[in-house]
Amino acid sequence: MLKGRHLIEPYDFSVQELDEIFDLADQMIDRPRDYLDVCKGMVMATLFYEPSTRTRFSFETAMLRLGGQIIGFDDPNTSSAAKGETLADTIRTIAGYADVAVIRHPREGTAKLAAKYTGMPVINAGDGGHQHPTQTLTDLLTIRHFLAGFENKTVGVCGDLKFGRTIHSLVRAMARYQNTRFIMISPDELKMPSYVLDDLIDGSYQETSNLEEAIGEVDVLYMSRVQKERFVSEEEYLRLKDFFILDREKMKLARRDMIVMHPLPRVNEIAEEVDSDPRAVYFEQARLGMFVRMALITKLLGV
Ligand code: NCD
145 catalytic, yes or no? Predict the structure, then answer.
């Protein structure tokens, strides 16, 4: 039963529960009109303490397409946080108004903390450099769509593996499927944190800084932006930001049946010339994210 649950980390839901969400998302893609009213009379709150385009808009659009209503803020300076209100008090108040809350915060662990103070379902929409489970739902649905399943896949994650929360969540989620291999592609300074690697089976991953060498092996190449806002030193960011740029030349080395994903926003790491390559699915990935969030909201509200 997903009704009333929180989603803080990708592990919070079993593989079977994820399949239920993906099956419902598929039905919603096929017959969106059947779901126009399922959340009528319900309210979703979006508490965004950090910038966002896709995540907030896709959540809000998802609720609107289900017939529900939305409240929220995208600038904490316009909320009582600016007056010094604690998160615990904010979430307890919001729980009196809304049926489900979506929260994004620059500090790791914030969504988990918020969930402790309320019985209303809380969805983590990104907590600092830690986790981003609904991006992972989006990513998994995309993989299922384009590669027809999750088993026996080689997943290359490339870019900022240190701070990239979408990558931390995706790797943890994909590790649960049979025979997943990972190639962690990053500069030395931005390697995958040990708390993610420690959970992986020995021998199921390799680390490299050479994208050209790795690209021919992968079913999924998951590109990511260097996370400027999480750097202490601007100089270090500038030195690393263009370490990998995926372009047409490098795509020639990739398999014909692979896909290129990216959570977006893109900065420089994928040249625009790659967008017209049929293997580049990142804008479709963003669209699928709305459907998977529709399915998630429906399940958590139990409607
Ligand atoms: C990501 C995020 O916020 O972590 N964006 C998103 O939600 N689609 C990726 C990023 O900001 O680089």
Answer: no
| 55: annotated active-site residue | yes
Q: Is 54 in the pocket of ligand 1 (CB under 6 A)?
A: yes
One fold for 10-131+289-301 and 134-286? yes
* pLDDT one-digit tens code per residue, 209-250: 999 999 999 999 999 999 999 999 999 999 999 999 999 999
Question: Whole-angstrom Cα distance, residue 165 to residue 105?
Answer: 12
Alpha-carbon distances, residue 137 vs 20, 49, 160, 294 (angstroms):
12, 22, 20, 11
CA distances from 53 to 76, 286, 303 (A): 15, 11, 27
pLDDT exceeds cutoff 90 at 112: yes
Class of domain 134-286: alpha beta
* Cross-strand partners of 280: 260
Candidate from 136, 137, 166, 229 with most ligand 1 atoms within 8 A of CB, to mutate? 166
> Which residue in the list 31, 33, 78, 83 is annotated as catalytic?
83
User: For residue 166, how far is its CA from the centre of ligand 1 (angstroms)?
Assistant: 7
Burial letters 2-39, b for 16+ CB under 10 A, else e: beebbbbbbebbeeeebeebbebbbebbeeeeebeebb
User: Got the DSSP string for 206-255?
Assistant: EEES-HHHHGGG-SEEEE----GGG-S-HHHHHHHTTS--B-HHHHTTS-
Domain boundaries of the chain, sorted by first residue: 10-131+289-301, 134-286
Q: Which atom of ligand 1 lies closest to the CA of 125? A: 7
For residue 158, the CA-to-ligand 1 centroid distance in Å is 14
CATH top class, domain 10-131+289-301? alpha beta
